[in-house]
């Protein structure tokens, strides 16, 4: 059995670090911070750790809401979605995740663009 991306990047601790860095970047962006006002950030971070772990092949099943339903009330534009993706990619790269694994994780995230933006 081949090693999962999840294990290659360092498991839960590494994913938690990436997610913390990701949200630091997102919440520092004046164009994005409004999406998170009044949100339970601890819960969002936990869901994001679960999501990244799942798409990286970790021992986790994502149990969060359907992506379309979870984001439909936010009216997220394409530029904002792209910015969020860029911040996640930067957080992965800065954490030392290799290019092949970054591309694999980001392909899963980019596949969610239509359900999130195209609501």
Automatic annotation (TrEMBL):
One family name in Pfam for this protein:
Bac_globin
Give the keywords, sorted.
Heme, Iron, Metal-binding, Transport
Q: What are the leading ranks of the lineage? A: Archaea, Methanobacteriati, Methanobacteriota, Stenosarchaea group, Halobacteria
Q: Which domain of life is it from?
A: Archaea
Family named by the database record: Belongs to the truncated hemoglobin family. Group I subfamily.
Q: Under which name does UniProt file this protein?
A: Group 1 truncated hemoglobin
A single MF term (Gene Ontology): oxygen binding
